[in-house]
Design a protein that fits this description.
heterodimer, A: mainly alpha, 3 helices, B: 251 residues, 0% strand
C-alpha cells in the first residue's frame, strides 16, 4: 500500500509538482483552444506561434517567481 | 525505419536516451548502496523486478494508446509533456543559476547507506528483503519518468520501439560504466542533461499540443528544431540573468 502511495506521489510530482506552472500551462492551452474554436477563419498557424510564445512567457514567469521565493526564504 | 522522419525520430530517441541517463544514474546510486551494504543478490533481484514491472507498463500501455484517436492522443500527451518538460527546464535553470543546489550523487549515496544501516529487522532474512525492496522501489520510481518519456515521445508516430531502445541503451551504458567504476556516478553532468531533456520535451509538448489542436506547423517536423532552439535560448538567457542578479545581490 505504501509502495502504491509512493508511485502515486511520484506521478503527482511529475506533472503537478509546481501548481503555478501547471495552472499557467493549462490557461495558455485553454486560451489557444478558445481562439481556434471561437474565431471563424482564424490563421491557426499564427495562433500556434502565439501559443508557443505563451509557453515561453510562462517559463520565464514561473522561473522568476521561484527565484524570488528562494531569495526571500 | 525507412518511413520514419529522422527530424522527429532523432530528438525522440535523444530525449529518451538522455532522460534515461539522468534517471538511471539516480537509481544506480541507490542500487549500488544496496549492493555495497547488503550484498548484490537482493540488489540485482530488486533491479530485475523493477525493470520487469516497468516493461509490463510499457507493453500494456503501448497498444492501448494505439486505440486512442491521434489528435486526442497528441493533445493529452502534448499538455503532459509541457507540464513535465517545463518543470524539468525550470529546475535546471534555477540550478544553473545557483539558486537551488545541484543534485549530489555522493550525498545521495551516503544518505541511502545511512537509511539502510538504520533498518534493523527482527530476523536475518528480512535484511535481504528490505534491501531488495529498496532497489525495486528505486528502479520503479525513477523508471516511471523514463516510461512516461518513452511513451510520450514514441506514441503517435510509431516511435515507441526506437524510443524504448534509446532508454535501454542508456540503461546498458550506465550499468557498464557503473560496474567498471564501482562508485556513484557523480561526474555525470546531470543538470546539463536535465536542461537538454527539458528543452526537448517542452518542444515536443508545444509541437504535439499544436498538432492535437489541428495546427499544421509550417516545415512540419523541422518546427521542432525552431522550438528547441528558442526554448534553449530562453533557458540559457534566464540562467544567465538570474545568476548575474544573484551575484549583484551578494556583493
Amino acid at each position: 500500500m505504501s509502495l502504491l502511495k509512493e508511485v502515486l506521489t511520484e506521478l503527482y510530482k511529475m506533472f503537478l509538482g509546481d501548481i503555478g506552472l501547471a495552472a499557467a500551462v493549462c490557461a495558455v492551452v485553454l486560451i489557444t483552444v478558445a481562439l481556434i474554436k471561437w474565431i471563424p477563419g482564424v490563421n491557426t498557424v499564427a495562433i500556434g506561434y502565439l501559443f508557443f510564445a505563451g509557453c515561453l512567457v510562462v517559463l520565464i514567469a514561473v522561473t522568476s517567481v521561484a527565484a524570488l521565493r528562494s531569495r526571500r526564504s | 525505419m525507412d518511413s520514419i522522419s529522422w527530424s522527429i525520430a532523432g530528438p525522440a530517441i535523444g530525449a529518451a536516451f538522455l532522460a534515461s541517463v539522468v534517471e538511471v544514474v539516480e537509481a544506480f546510486t541507490i542500487v549500488l548502496a544496496v549492493g555495497v551494504l547488503r550484498g548484490w543478490r537482493p540488489a540485482i533481484a530488486g533491479t530485475a523486478a523493477g525493470l520487469a514491472v516497468l516493461a509490463v507498463i510499457v507493453l500494456a500501455l503501448g497498444p492501448l494508446l494505439d486505440q486512442v484517436p491521434l489528435h486526442s492522443l497528441q493533445l493529452v500527451i502534448g499538455v503532459l509533456l509541457l507540464l513535465f518538460g517545463m518543470g524539468w527546464l525550470r529546475k535546471a535553470i534555477l540550478r544553473a543559476a545557483g539558486i537551488i543546489p545541484l543534485h549530489d550523487e555522493l550525498a545521495a549515496f551516503q544518505t541511502e547507506k545511512a537509511n539502510l544501516g538504520r533498518d534493523t529487522p527482527a530476523h536475518g532474512t528480512s535484511l535481504d528483503w528490505i534491501a531488495g525492496i529498496t532497489a525495486f522501489k528505486a528502479i520503479l520510481l525513477e523508471g516511471l519518468e523514463v516510461v512516461f518519456i518513452v511513451i510520450a515521445v514514441g506514441s503517435g508516430r510509431g516511435l515507441l520501439g526506437p524510443a524504448a531502445l534509446g532508454a535501454l541503451a542508456a540503461c546498458v551504458l550506465v550499468l557498464l560504466v557503473g560496474a567498471f567504476v564501482h562508485k556513484p556516478l557523480s561526474r555525470v553532468p546531470e543538470n546539463t542533461l536535465k536542461f537538454g531533456v527539458g528543452v526537448m520535451l517542452s518542444s515536443f509538448g508545444v509541437f504535439w499540443t499544436g498538432e492535437g489542436l489541428g495546427i499544421a506547423w509550417p516545415g512540419q517536423d523541422l518546427t521542432l528544431l525552431l522550438f528547441a532552439g528558442l526554448f534553449l535560448l530562453t533557458g540559457m538567457g534566464m540562467a544567465y540573468f538570474l545568476r548575474t542578479k544573484k551575484q549583484e545581490i551578494s556583493l
